Amino acid sequence: MELNVKDAQGCFVGFVEMEQLAVMAGRPSVANAAILARQLSAIWETKSAADIIRERASLSAVHELTGNPGCSPIDIESMLRRTSGCNSHFGYDPIAKVEPLAFAWSSSSNYTQQLLPGAVPKDRLPDALHSLDSIQRIQTPMVTLIDHINENVCGHPGLIHGGMTTIIANSSLSLVAALNAPENAHIMPLSLNMDYRKPIHSSDFVKIHAWLYRNSGDQMKAAVHFYSLKNEMLVEAVADIAIRPPPVVQ
């Protein structure tokens, strides 16, 4: 059976009425079934780009970032050129109807306070950049993104496919590496290890922190966390990234 958006919205309203009638009639089992059906019908609801932008503008997470002097907005369009072949998410319509909001944190900011206390192993903390292993100065140790992935890339209905989550993680890690690499350098991920904690729903916004914790000049170690807007850890990943110099033009 095919179910389009209009049908799903009609089902949603019908299940709400069914739930109300069941409660009035003292039939809790029927009411619970209606609640479940209503939640399932919501899976097929979609948002337009205008809806996403309008809802995103009202998020407290966005207001906190735009009002924080320690971070500044990143122009995604200009960064597309910096991340070259590693970037397969930003501006790719089937995955994101709207480009994510991206912010770069300065090395003198309170960026470490954005991560959940105790959620990051000591040797993976951004503070590790101050160790002797990191011989290159880091101007932008972390980036934060507010993203909304649409229903076109669901695995199970209403849940973002794990492969798409990997693409977003790779793009975010490439972004923070590119911000700290020489102009036109080639960003080449060597390894990416994903740890999926909780599913990402297609109707939700996510907050993504990607940071460097080692930099030896030609290779970087980076990590990324995906959070819900309730600060629940959804995904964690770590990567080794090679930095190759741009080709010499004869």
Can you walk through the features of this model?
This protein is of the alpha+beta class. It is 30% helix and 23% strand. The chain has 6 helices and 7 strands, in the order H-H-H-H-E-H-E-E-H-E-E-E-E. A hairpin with a 3-residue loop joins strand 5 and strand 6.
> Structural class of the helix and strand makeup?
alpha+beta
Average pLDDT taken over every residue: 75
Beta-strand percentage?
A: 15-25%
Strand order of the largest sheet: 1-2-3-5-6-7-4
Question: Helix tally?
Answer: 6
- Tally of DSSP β-strands: 7
- The rounded Rg comes to 21 Å
Low-confidence stretches: 1-16, 40-44, 131-135
Form type: globular
**In whole angstroms, how far apart are the ends?**
61 Å
Q: Give the topology string: H per helix, E per strand.
A: HHHHEHEEHEEEE
Biggest beta-sheet profile:
7 strands, antiparallel
Helix content: 25-40%
Question: What is the element layout, followed by pairings?
Answer:
Blueprint: H1 5-24, H2 28-41, H3 49-57, H4 60-66, E1 71-73, H5 76-83, E2 101-105, E3 142-148, H6 162-179, E4 186-196, E5 205-215, E6 219-227, E7 233-244
Antiparallel strand pairs: 1-2, 2-3, 3-5, 4-7, 5-6, 6-7
Helix pairs in contact: 1-2
Summarize the structure.
It is built from 6 helices and 7 strands; from the N terminus they run H-H-H-H-E-H-E-E-H-E-E-E-E. It has helices spanning 5-24, 28-41, 49-57, 60-66, 76-83, 162-179, and strands spanning 71-73, 101-105, 142-148, 186-196, 205-215, 219-227, 233-244.
